[in-house]
TrEMBL record, chains A, B:
<keyword id="KW-0804">Transcription</keyword>
<feature type="domain" description="HTH gntR-type">
    <location>
        <begin position="19"/>
        <end position="86"/>
    </location>
</feature>
<dbReference type="InterPro" id="IPR036390">
    <property type="entry name" value="WH_DNA-bd_sf"/>
</dbReference>
<keyword id="KW-0238">DNA-binding</keyword>
<dbReference type="InterPro" id="IPR036388">
    <property type="entry name" value="WH-like_DNA-bd_sf"/>
</dbReference>
<dbReference type="InterPro" id="IPR000524">
    <property type="entry name" value="Tscrpt_reg_HTH_GntR"/>
</dbReference>
<dbReference type="InterPro" id="IPR011711">
    <property type="entry name" value="GntR_C"/>
</dbReference>
<dbReference type="InterPro" id="IPR008920">
    <property type="entry name" value="TF_FadR/GntR_C"/>
</dbReference>
<dbReference type="Pfam" id="PF07729">
    <property type="entry name" value="FCD"/>
</dbReference>
<dbReference type="Pfam" id="PF00392">
    <property type="entry name" value="GntR"/>
</dbReference>
<dbReference type="GO" id="GO:0003700">
    <property type="term" value="F:DNA-binding transcription factor activity"/>
</dbReference>
<dbReference type="GO" id="GO:0003677">
    <property type="term" value="F:DNA binding"/>
</dbReference>
<keyword id="KW-0805">Transcription regulation</keyword>
<protein>
    <submittedName>
        <fullName>GntR family transcriptional regulator</fullName>
    </submittedName>
</protein>
Amino acid sequence: MTDNVLEELSDDRRLLGRTSTAERVAGILRGRIIEGGFRPGMRLAEEEIGRALGVSRNTLREAFRLLTHERLLAHELNRGMFVRKLTVEDLEDLYRVRRLVECAALRQLAAPPYALHTMDAAVTAGLSARAEERWRDLGTANMHFHQGIVELAGSPRADDMMRGVLAELRLVFHVMENPRRFHEPYLPRNREILDALRDGDAPGAERLLAVYLDDSRRQLADGYARQLG
Amino acid sequence: MTDNVLEELSDDRRLLGRTSTAERVAGILRGRIIEGGFRPGMRLAEEEIGRALGVSRNTLREAFRLLTHERLLAHELNRGMFVRKLTVEDLEDLYRVRRLVECAALRQLAAPPYALHTMDAAVTAGLSARAEERWRDLGTANMHFHQGIVELAGSPRADDMMRGVLAELRLVFHVMENPRRFHEPYLPRNREILDALRDGDAPGAERLLAVYLDDSRRQLADGYARQLG
DNA sequence: AAGGAAAGGATTGTTGAACGATTCCGCAAC
DNA sequence: GTTGCGGAATCGTTCAACAATCCTTTCCTT
């Protein structure tokens, strides 16, 4: 048996990722929040949720903490946990970060060809979601596209941060009615960006992306402000 | 009573910042790690530390979670908490993120003048630290300088991320002997960048910064690899 | 002597209960 | 209408206990 095989196994073991109960609970709750089952502003009582999930308060609190640091839950001392409610400023900041990081990811590209697999898959998924009018899924696909952009930087930490940013953005999308309006127009624009990258035109892609993000921010911030007010 | 006054009060309330025991414990531990008292790789036993600090295991675990999320501690299931030990790849990734974010922060600048207060204060602090040969403090000042660069983007989330990145970097600095080597050469370069920004030459500052980060990464990665191997 | 199974101790993971502290809510008094 | 005062509900924190897991040592087999 070669050392090579053993190394692969030990890699797999890490991927196997044994998880604690708290992490699994956090995973369940994260899903509920991201899928929109738990609406922003909703309070998550320890007793109630702990009973429903069959875990103790301590374990549940540990799960809450994980989600708090992902900014999906907000903690108010002696009052409890709430599904985070983004302000318009939060939304603006999320786009500020997106513009900073996503554009930077394109700018630092070296010579083509680029690893466009994730972005390509996201566009494909978006097309079929649109065809079947699954607008929420279209939104997810668009997010994966932009996750793919950041992946081009090849930085695990940047990927992580982007994952968090996009998760937060869902808190906004889920309170908006009419999801189609906010997702459909951007599918062809994603494809434009992808095409530019395929042609090796990274600066062009970056320009497209910058305009894209500004448009999206404006539209979303307007809609969100109206929804809140 | 005007609404204005009420708003200010509610702002103050946030600053009042009541903190839980766990947060205070996390603060103490963070200090120990950042100041170098707890060396990377060191194991933090729940029982032992909890007894020393006079808090229960549960509360301590809550503090551990906070620090885990800042990537200062690493958690291994059923084995415990360890002060994080960065690999050379981690170090490279940290610089990848820095280059991405810091350069992007300079690039997105609008017209001068810029809010250079933080950077200016950092250079001043660095000068006096150098004069008194407090090399560790000089390192801290340099970090504040780069924190200041990111602040130019005006994004709380970017600030947050940068804070985390720099905290992680300390894990590297603290295992390096000869801190002077890694800090002193960069003080004048920070001043150069600051001067360029004062002159309103953001693109020039960005170029300087990019070279700075590449140099620093190379030097630090080399030294770190030697230290580990 | 080398390798591997078994046992034991130590530490973590999770639970349940307890008690003080804080907040929320309704009601009475001014 | 506002202020003050309970009472209920919930959170913050601690403690004790047990199961699960890991680490080390011992012992057995070859």
